[in-house]
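Deviation from plan, reported transparently: magnesium ion complex.
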Amino acid sequence: MIAVQGVSFTYPGTSVPALKNIDFTIKPGQYLAISGPNGSGKSTLARLLNALLRPNRGQVLVDGLDTRDEAAIIAIRRRVGMVFQDPDNQLVGATVEDDVAFGLENLGLPPTEIRQRVALALETAGLASLRGRPPHLLSGGQKQRVALAGIIAMEPRYLVLDEATAMLDPVTREEVLQKVQHLRQEKGIGVILITHLLEEALQAEQIMILKEGRILFHGQPHELIQKEKILAELGFKLPATLDLAEALRQQGLKIPVNLLSVEELARTLWKLSLKM
Ligand SMILES: Nc1ncnc2c1ncn2[C@@H]1O[C@H](COP(=O)(O)OP(=O)(O)O)[C@@H](O)[C@H]1O
Ligand SMILES: [Mg+2]
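Because the crystal trials were delayed, the predicted structure below was used instead.
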């Protein structure tokens, strides 16, 4: 479990805290989306989770390891994998395959295990056909997937994606997120998805909204979509599916409030039509 307890953080040389009094936990296998306006503290929170930053107040515990404990930092970084928005700073290898293997070689794993893990990570990120290419010649979306594959190969227990799908086209983004979901379900990885897209956040089990360094909302997706004030404040527009569901509800159809995807709505309407 990652436990964030009463955490506040102020960047050196600034006077306004970037995060104030943050409390939450995430367990292996859970799926948390974090959203909020630019500058609300999302990336700062991400960096606190794998000890790139240390809290000024409160503590972050990763499976019981305190991020303020210098001796625990390597173990914490192995547990909490992080993929950032800008992939260029994360690519180091001469080929895609080398790049994905880089972290594993640093761990001193046997070559056969490295090959297996790299193959699986490339497959997961949809990169098997690009394995021999030089990463710097790839498109932004492809580079992003190389960075993701490199982290997946490390087999972290928690995966933090900080706007890591922002450079992908919608179809690839959906594919990558689906693959991340499979990893979560198969290996019990805890996933923290930082995104400014409401539709992406609604796929998570829990959503946390940050504003000016504080938690404005933390709950389930179906609870968030009923908070009109918060949605308006964030400039979030409900996806068309939810608007349609609400309109049908007002017509008297029995449509559950926790229904969020096109597929679920279609299934519900199909069942209702069978009863008519
Ligand atoms: N390296 C830094 N030094 C000083 N202030 C920073 C630094 N990085 C971010 N900030 C400030 O901290 C606040 C939160 O930023 P950030 O966590 O990047 O927000 P988000 O990821 O939600 O856009 C902002 O006010 C930002 O200007
Ligand atoms: Mg950010």
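The pocket of magnesium ion (ligand 2) is lined by residues 42-43, 163 (CB under 6 Å). We consider this an acceptable substitute for the interim report.
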